[in-house]
Amino acid sequence: PLAGPLTEFVAASRAAGSAQWQRSYVDTFDQKRKCSLYLSYFATGDTRKRGTALVTFLEAYRAAGFEFDAQDLPDYLPAVLEFSARSDDEIAGALLAAHVEGIEVLRAALEGMHSPWANVVRTITLSLPPVDRATQERILSLVSEGPPTETVGLSFLGNLPPFSPREGTGV
Fold first, then answer.
1. Which pLDDT does position 36 carry in this prediction?
2. Using the 8-state DSSP alphabet, how is residue 45 labeled?
3. Would you tell me the crossing angle of helices 49-63 and 90-98 to the nearest 10 degrees?
4. How far is Cα of residue 10 from the mean position of the Cα atoms in its chain?
5. Are 41 and 166 within 8 A, CB to CB?
6. In Å, how far are 18, 19, 46, 71, 86 from 74, measured between CA atoms?
7. Whole-model pTM above 0.85?
8. Is 93 strand, coil or helix?
9. CB-CB neighbours of 157 under 10 Å
């Protein structure tokens, strides 16, 4: 059952051609918040908590006997999948299962866009433990609200007068 969606994905990537496929990748994963390939982003957004989450990923790699030595962040989904594929340690599966909400948000966003990458992410979700009701509720919340945002230090913005451009300045 896992082979079908992956075969469709490979066929779509070959049919698109390299340049088009690269543009599509950037448009999908670099331009849309709900299509982030960084797992901790869904749980922490771009907040100060993200640093702690990234350290947790590094500690998980080390606990399983791996040293993360890549140019990307340790929560990058392809890196976590590679870690899972190369490790017999239960930590790898636990790391993916701990971020099932983000993976499901990514899947839903990709499916909503009819993206060929949805097939790959769907395959990942099929390999994870079933989602319980509480997890489903967290997923629905993330789908509707998006990842957390941080407004610490921005409260002064509410006290500013409305912006009105000065005449003749072009601003």
1. 93
2. -
3. 160
4. 21
5. no
6. 26, 27, 15, 9, 15
7. no
8. helix
9. 8
In Å, how far are 33, 96, 103, 108 from 142, measured between CA atoms? 11, 17, 11, 11
Per-residue b or e along 61-92, where b marks 16 or more CB atoms closer than 10 Å to that residue's CB? beebebebeeeebbbbbebbeebbeebebebb
Encoded tokens for 170:
């072009």
Phi/psi of residue 84, nearest 5 degrees: -65, -40
Query: Mind listing the pLDDT tens digit for each residue in 28-70?
Result: 999 888 899 999 998 888 888 899 999 999 999 999 999 998 8
Is the Cβ–Cβ distance between 149 and 46 less than 8 Å? yes
3-state helix, strand, coil in the chain (%, to 5): 65, 0, 35
C-beta pairs of 86-89 under 8 Å, 24+ apart in sequence: 89/63, 89/64, 89/65
What whole-number distance in Å separates Cα of residue 76 and Cα of residue 53? Answer: 12
Nearest to 100 by CA among 76, 128, 73, 81: 128
Q: How far apart are CA 17 and CA 144, in angstroms?
A: 34
Say which residue the tokens 């922490």 belong to: 44
**DSSP, res 28:** I
